[in-house]
Design a protein that fits this description.
Layout (H helix, E strand, L loop, with lengths): L1 H37 L6 E5 L3 E5 L4 E9 L5 E8 L5 E6 L7 E4 L3 E11 L6 E11 L5 E11 L3 E5 L2 E5 L3 E4 L5 E9 L5 E8 L5 E6 L8 E4 L4 E9 L7 E10 L4 E10 L5 E4 L6 E5 L4 E9 L5 E9 L5 E5 L2 E5 L4 E9 L7 E10 L4 E11 L2 H27 L1
Parallel strand pairs: 2-9, 12-19, 21-28
Antiparallel strand pairs: 1-3, 3-7, 4-6, 4-8, 5-7, 8-9, 10-11, 11-13, 13-17, 14-16, 14-18, 15-17, 18-19, 20-22, 22-26, 23-25, 23-27, 24-26, 27-28
């Protein structure tokens, strides 16, 4: 009984503490969100598919993740549509179970949807381009993005001199830093066992290796019994600095009596990576109350795809100001580096001490942060005032000492 009374007493005591904690935390969270919104433009939208280029087989449907961004300070109702639909295709924007023609996106947020494209029976191999369009309800802002679908034949096959090589997936797509693995079925039509040597022709500086199916060891030859087939894997590792694009690879399988080859292709979408820092590695600076202080940092595109529309955000103490020059970077090619000047102005009421200021560099598909330590010092004017007071005190003591000494 006493235990229940004690538990009830603790519960009653905890309720005011919870209400007080919530009352303190909620205004702080709201103030942080409002401060962040001040760094956003008044309005801004964009529509961006995760992949703007797709390679697929005849008859296959295509589904691509689509993101609709609101980069402005106010909430937006955004209308969506698919334009320039190639003949024979059906394309639309959808969510899990229904089509979507418009979406509400809060400020500094995004919504994830799906771009769906279904080919008709008469759609054959070729290149097909779609345009996804986003427009605000008042028609003042628009954004569009292209999606290109390359349709390949359903199966690539090569039969030469009693040797047949087939693969169901001759085209693979992914980022530059990924490994690609093709599965090949090699069938011998010879009436005797044979050892086949394996070789490949691919882009310069690419790694191409052969493996038995479902094994990790590398091989350079394949033993196949008469009139039997065997499955093997071709592992492809792109050159780290290869640019986005299509890269053909030719695989040859041969013995003294037979020769076969198959054409494969890797489609690189590129990698999105950013590096940031200062020239001397220093991430701290001194500043006076209410006075601007400058620090220079670099932004480097260490990926293989160009970075477009790089923007800068700051997370800082209340009533501080952070300005960037330039305010944004329109395009940063792979391997390029650009210097950015950040001007940080502490609040005039800031106390003397160390503060943390976080700078965020936001690219298309990646973000980098730079955390700075800012040491705020009192204005030098107060130091001179203090020295003046000390001098006056000392002078007063000297005068008093002289007068007393005469007496």
């Amino acid at each position: 009984m006493r235990g229940k009374q004690l538990g009830f007493f603790l519960l009653i005591c905890a309720i005011p503490v919870f209400i007080l904690f919530t009352g303190i935390l909620s205004p702080l969270t709201q103030a942080f969100g409002e401060e962040k919104k001040k760094d956003l433009p008044p309005r801004g939208i964009s529509v961006s598919p995760d992949y703007t280029g797709i390679v697929t087989k005849e008859g296959d449907d295509v589904s691509i993740d689509l993101k609709v961004y609101n980069k402005g300070r106010q909430d937006e109702d955004i209308d969506l549509s698919v334009e320039s639909i190639p003949k024979g295709w059906d394309a639309w924007i959808k969510t899990y179970s229904f089509g979507v023609t418009g979406v509400h996106v809060p400020s500094d947020d995004f919504k994830s949807l799906t771009f769906q494209a279904d080919p008709g029976k008469d759609v054959g191999p070729g290149k097909y381009t779609f345009v996804v369009k986003a427009q605000t309800a008042d028609g003042r802002l628009t954004s569009s993005s292209k999606v290109t679908i390359v349709v390949k034949k359903k199966e690539e096959e090569k039969k030469i001199k009693g040797l047949e090589i087939t693969t169901s997936y001759p085209v693979l797509q992914g980022p530059t830093d990924a490994k690609f693995e093709f599965s090949l079925d090699v069938k011998s039509k010879s009436d005797k066992d044979a050892i086949f040597n394996l070789s490949a022709q691919g882009p310069e500086n690419w790694e191409i290796n052969f493996k038995p199916a479902y094994e990790t060891k590398y091989i350079s030859s394949l033993r196949i019994k008469a009139n039997m087939s065997q499955t093997m894997a071709v592992e492809v590792k792109p050159y780290p600095f290869a640019e986005p694009g299509k890269y053909p690879i030719k695989v040859m399988v041969e013995s003294p009596d037979a020769h076969g080859e198959v054409d494969l292709m890797v489609v690189l979408t590129g990698t999105y990576k950013l590096e940031t820092g200062t020239a001397d590695g220093r991430l701290s600076l001194n500043a006076l109350q209410g006075k601007p202080a400058n620090i220079s940092f670099y932004v480097k595109n260490s990926g293989s795809a160009a970075q477009n529309n790089l923007s800068f955000l700051s997370f800082k103490p209340e009533n501080w100001k952070v300005e960037f020059k330039p305010e944004k970077i329109d395009i940063l090619p792979p391997g390029d580096l650009q210097q950015v000047e950040a001007t940080i102005t502490p609040s005039e009421q800031a106390l003397v001490g160390d503060y943390s200021v976080n700078l965020s560099i936001q690219g298309e598909k990646t973000t980098q942060n730079l955390e700075l330590r800012v040491t705020v010092r009192a204005s030098t004017a107060w130091g001179w005032i203090g020295i003046g007071i000390i001098i006056l005190v000392i002078a007063g003591l000297v005068v008093m000492f002289i007068k007393l000494g005469r007496r």
